[in-house]
Amino acid sequence: MTTRIGVVTFPGSLDDADARRAIRLAGGEPVALWHRDKDLHQVDAVVLPGGFSYGDYLRCGAIARFSPVMETIIDQARAGLPVLGICNGFQVLCESHLLPGALTRNDHLHFVCRDQRLRVENTDTAWTSDYAEGQEITVPLKNGEGGYVADERTLDELEATGRVVFRYLDVNPNGSRRDIAGICNEAGNVVGLMPHPEHAVEALTGPTTDGLGFFTSVLKKLVATS
Ligand SMILES: NC(=O)CC[C@H](N)C(=O)O
Q1: β-strand 45-48 against 4-9: which pairing, if any?
Q2: Residue 142 Cβ < 6 Å to ligand 1
Q3: Could you report the predicted ipTM of this complex, rounded to two decimals?
Q4: 4-225 adopts what CATH topology?
Q5: In angstroms, rounded to a whole number, what is the distance separating the alpha carbons of residues 104 and 147?
Q6: pLDDT (tens digit per residue) in 97-137
Q7: Structural domain boundaries of the chain?
Q8: CA 41 to chain centre
Q9: What is the CA(13)–ligand 1 centre distance, in A?
Q10: Which ligand 1 atom sits nearest the alpha carbon of residue 50?
């Protein structure tokens, strides 16, 4: 039986098709989930994709967080469902309080679009176990509100408990505190990051295939626990 991974489509989602494609390439069965549907259709994990949910009105992710599908995802994520939030999905996870902190306007106030080098700092999460600790990967980054902020106590706690999962290398592209590109919750089942692994899964479209490991990691974990 193949493992089913849901990908939510909100009005304004942009990268849902690429996320479904990445799941298929990794060997999973992608399942399209609709923002108005509370039912997760028995998926084993969920990806919240990048884009401009609800037109980024109010703040990125602030409206999506109240969608019917998120009600169920928030409950199930607290019970251990693996959830990956990519870019706008990371913003939705912070707005949902599944992850601490917030994403703010890039410090230079411009939209940024570049291939970004990252270091994988924690391989003990549902979405990163296929990487080596300290591995350097390159995946695309494209956003206007990618500056990660949290109070000093939260930042210290994230560092002390190994919950900084990815850090920017070479340049800090948006003013994120402590070069943080991605974090996880205490249990490690919920991971959010600003760069886009789902755009780096095929040699043809590149820039690398470094992003595939997110999807193979969760599939291996799900097979092992089923
Ligand atoms: N690529 C994305 O998901 C963009 C997220 C959000 N709309 C931003 O500009 O920050």
Answers
A1: parallel
A2: yes
A3: 0.96
A4: Rossmann fold (3.40.50)
A5: 5
A6: 999 999 999 999 999 999 999 999 999 999 999 999 999 99
A7: 4-225
A8: 21
A9: 9
A10: 3
